[in-house]
Amino acid sequence: MKNRNKMPLLAAPYGVWSVAFIVIPLIMILYYGFTSKADGSFTFENIALIAKSDNLKALGLSVVLSLISTVICLLIAYPLALILKALKFKGSSFLIMIIILPMWMNSLLRTIAWQNILENTGILNNILTFFGLPKAHIINTNKAIIIGMVYDFLPFMILPINNVIQKIDDDVINAARDLGANYFQTIIRVILPLSLPGVISGITMVFVPALTTFVISTILGGSKILLIGNVIEQYFQYIYNWNAGSGLSLVLMVFIFISMALVNKYDKEDEVSAAF
Amino acid sequence: MAKRFFMKLYVALVVIFLYAPIAVLIVLSFNASKSRAKWGGFTTDWYTRLFSNAGIMDAFKNTIIIALISAVVATILGTAASIGMNRMKRLPKTVMLGITNIPMLNADIVTGISLMLLFIAFKIGLGFKAVLISHITFNIPYVILSVMPKLRQTSRARYEAALDLGAKPAYAFFKVVLPDIMPGVISGFILAFTMSIDDFIITYFTRGTQVDTLSTKIYSEVRKGIKPEMYALSTLLFVTVLVLLVIVNRRNAYLEEKQKKKI
C-alpha cells in the first residue's frame, strides 16, 4: 500500500520546475511592473503608460485587428470542420496532418513569403493585372497584418473545432433531423452548442497570440504600424526600460486572464486542449 | 453531387491558402537572383552553398539540439508529472493543472519577458542555457495534455493487479502502464519538438546576444533581406518532414489493413 500512496510524488520535479520557471517569473513581471525604474519604489506609473496616446492607439489597433482576425478564422474554420464531418472523408487524420504540416516551415519565413504575394509588384497583383483587374494595395497596411494573423493562427482555430465536431455522435444529428429539424436548425440548435468548448478554445488560441504579436506587424506592416506587442518589444530590446515594458505586459495580461477564465468555464474535461 | 463538389472545393481553397507561402518559399530557394522580388533563373546553388554558410549551419545546429534536449526532458518530466497528478487529490491536482495552463494560454511575449527577467535577476544569465530552460518550460504542458487523456483511459486495476502478482512498482510501470500511455507520450514528444523548432518569441527574449536559432537569425535578416540559403534549408526541412509523414501514414494504413485481415 505504501508504494501506491507515493505516486503523486512523481509530480514533484515538475512541481518544483513550474514554481521556479512559471510562477516566479510572473511574480518578477508584477515586481517590475509596479516599481519605478529610477529608485525601485512602488509606483503605478508603468501601468499608467498605457494611457499615453501612442500606446493607447497601439493597444486599440491590436484589439481591433486581432478581433477581426479571430472572426475570420472562425468563419473559415467552422464550415471546414462541418464539411470534413459531412464528407466522412476516409483520410481525415491525413487531412489534419496536412493542416499541421505547414507549421514545419518556419513561421517567420512563411510570413515573409506573404510579402512576395502581397507586394505592389507581387504575385497577387500580377494575377489581378493578368485578368485586367485593378491592383490592390495591401502590403504595409492593416489588411496585410490581418491576412498574416489569419494565416499564422488559422490552424489553432481549425484543430480544436474540428476535434469537437468530429466527436459529435452521428446519432445525435440524425435524431434532430428525424424530429423535423432542417439542416440549419440542426447546426444552430444541436451542433453549435455541442461544439462550443472547441470554439472557445479556438478563439482564445487565435486571439491571444494575435493580440500580442509584434512579428507579423514588423514583417507585413512595414515599420509604420505599431501594435502593442511592438511597443512592449521596443521597451525591452531598444529602450531597455523593463519596468515600463512589464507594466504594459500586465495590462495585456488582463485580456489573457479573461481568456483563461473563459476556457476554464467551458473546458471542464480539458479534452479540448488535448488536441494540441 | 454539386454540393459535394463545393464542399471539396472549399477544403481545397483552405489548403491552397495554407500552402501558397510555402510554394513561394520553395520557388525562392531555386531563384538565381539574390533579391526576393526578382526571378533570375533556375539554380540549385543555394543548396550547395548552404553547407558552407557557417552562420546558418550554426543556427540550425542550435535549433535541433535545443529542440531535441528540451523535448526529451519535457517528455520525461511531463509524463512523470501526469502520472503523479492523476493520483492526486482534487485540490492539488486542480492547482497544478491550472499552473500548467499558464504557459499555454499566456502570450509568448509575456512568457519570454518573464523568463528573461528571472534569468537576469537570479544571475543565470541569458544564452543557450536560458533558452533551453525556457523551451523545456513551455514544452512540458504539451506533454502533460497529451499524456493525461491517455492515463484517464487506462484502468488503475491493471497496474494494481501487476503489483498484487508480485511486480515491483517500476517493473509494473514499464510493463503495464507505459505501453498503455505510449501513444500519448509519443505525440507529446513530437508536439514539444515541433513547438520548440518553430518558437521565435520566447527564444528572442532569452537568447542574449550570442546564441542564434533559425528563427532569431531570420528575424535579424528581415530588414536587410533573407539569405537565399535559408529558403533552401527550410525547403529541405519541409520535404524531410513531408516524406516522413507520408511513410508513417502509409505504414499505419498498412498495419490497419493487416489488422482487419486478421479479424
Biggest β-sheet of chain A: count, sense, barrel? none
SSE string of chain B: HHHHHHHHHHH
Query: What is the CATH fold-level name of the largest domain in chain B?
Result: MetI-like fold
Category from helices, strands and their pairing of chain B = mainly alpha
Tell me the quaternary state.
heterodimer
Q: What's the pLDDT, averaged over the residues of chain B?
A: 92
How many β-strand stretches of chain B?
0
Beta fraction of chain B: under 5%
CATH homologous superfamily title of chain A: MetI-like
Terminus-to-terminus distance of chain B = 35 Å
* Total E-strand runs of chain A: 0
Unreliable spans of chain B: none
Return the CATH class of the largest domain in chain B: Mainly Alpha
Question: Can you give a write-up of this model?
Answer:
- The complex is a heterodimer of chains A (276) and B (263).
- Chain A has 276 residues and is an all-alpha fold.
- Chain A has 13 helices and no strands.
- By secondary structure, chain B is mainly alpha-helical.
- Chain B is built from eleven helices and no strands.
- The mean pLDDT of chain B is 92.
- Classes of the chains: A mainly alpha (276), B mainly alpha (263).
- At the A-B interface, helix 2, helix 4, helix 5, helix 6 and helix 8 of A face helix 1, helix 3, helix 4, helix 5 and helix 6 of B.
Looking at this protein, list some descriptive labels.
heterodimer; A: 276 residues; mainly alpha; MetI-like fold; 13 helices; 72% helix; globular; disordered C terminus; B: 263 residues; 11 helices; 80% helix
Helices and strands in order:
The complex is a heterodimer of chains A (276) and B (263).
Chain A: H1 2-5, H2 12-33, H3 45-48, H4 53-87, H5 92-100, H6 107-118, H7 123-130, H8 142-167, H9 170-178, H10 183-212, H11 215-220, H12 228-237, H13 242-266
Helix pairs in contact in A: 2-13, 4-8, 4-10, 4-12, 6-8, 8-10, 9-10, 10-13, 12-13
Chain B: H1 2-28, H2 45-50, H3 54-86, H4 90-105, H5 108-121, H6 128-153, H7 156-164, H8 169-198, H9 201-206, H10 214-221, H11 228-262
